[in-house]
Amino acid sequence: MPAPVPAPLPPAKPSSRTPEPPLHVVFCLLPDFPMLAFASAIEPLRMANRMAGRPAFRWSLVSPDGEAARASNGIALTVDGGLIDAAGGRPGGLIEAAQPDYAFVVAGLDVERHSRPPVKRWLRMLAKRGVAVGGISSAAHVLADAGLLDNRRCAVHWENLPALAERFPQVDARQELCVIDDNIYTCAGGTAAIDMMLHVIARHVDEAIAGKVADQCILGSVRPLDQRQRQPMGRDLRRASPLVAAAAKLMEDHLASPLALAALPGRLGLSRRQVERQFKRDLGMSPARYYMQLRLERARHLLLQTALPVIDVAIACGFVSASHFSKSYRRQFRRAPQDERRGGGGVALW
User: Fold this and answer.
1) Total domain count for the chain?
2) Which one, 103, 269, 278, 287, has least CB within 10 Å?
3) Per-residue pLDDT tens digits for 40-78
4) Residues 6 or more apart from 247 whose CB is under 8 A from it?
């Protein structure tokens, strides 16, 4: 006998649940913004939409003047609008018409020069309205300049951290991948922007989707937001012993008021001879020489990224004598401190 034909299934009832509208994320691209950091921020949102099978996020790009935004690699991106209207220098129509859920400034080279009044007014306006605002790479400087980071924690690219700490002592700047302090989001830039966006995805979509996005990014694991961006300044410490790494961390935490080297072994629970021997074996130098290198590297960052007088840079790095600072600097970098600014002696790598 032929098999009975199954009865057709009843039509599916339409879902009564209204799909949630996508969250609107605005990226304000400042001149010389870092392409890597921007891509690391926007691509996880695209992947989240794909993994979720729906538009969970949408985004807009803006620049301060509405013109194409040029990255530090020379590539220019077309934007959707600007922050200033042509008539009166007020916040632009794009943001007024559709208030975003998140607004991130992306900044890199010469952030002090690009921290302009229109950008700061826009950030203050959005923060006052309860919008989550954030800074990527060196953009924490712009948020601090707008007064939004007073007595708050923030993350900033490690190369910009000394300048931020000197300019805004009221800000608790940290060398962590990302910091979320209430409704303010900051991250170190580079691939740390992925970590920040994974948090946003987990919060507004779900953790499973965030995990799938991490897999799409070929991340071995989702990093904790408070993970340090890098090893302490100076020599590569990945192969150094835990003792040397701990000593280097102590030194980096005390650059403006250097620790007495005689007190260092006691803090580590070892003898001076043990510490000296371990530094020589792991780094090929004494603790005193390593400490001096840390202080001089910090000084070089300040010279290249701030307008602080040379004597103030010296004091910020624990030198009480301008002549001692200048002599030590010449020995390390083969040029006088003031020549760093004249010759543009460094290149930021955001």
Assistant:
1) 2
2) 269
3) 999 999 999 999 999 999 999 999 999 999 999 999 999
4) 264, 268, 275, 279, 287
